[in-house]
Amino acid sequence: xxxxxxxxxxxxxxxxxxxxxxxxxxxxxxxxxxxxxxxxxxxxxxxxxxxxxxxxxxxxxxxxxxxxxxxxxxxxxxxxxxxxxxxxxxxxxxxxxxxxxxxxxxxxxxxxxxxxxxxxxxxxxxxxxx
Length: 130
Description:
By secondary structure, the protein is mainly α. The protein is about 75% helix and about 0% strand.
């Protein structure tokens, strides 16, 4: 019969018990954040296609206004994908150089406001057309 470790901490197979895993966890958290930004950007690009092409075809209306909204979503999506790559590189450098992580509140607030404006405009246009 095997005994559990005294401190009852479980470790991944092959993990070095003397090695600090906090930097590894921080790096992995930064990687998950990068993937979240990337997924959001790709979703916005998908929404651009749906708003610009699919919705006008489904409700039988003019594509012009919805096309402009689709372009707005596409611009937001491309910006988010590019920002995800740039921000991931900045965070990786900060972690490697043991510096504080860069703040991106201005980008978060701006993109959130932009997404909310686009969503509100889409809802107004859908209600007006239906």
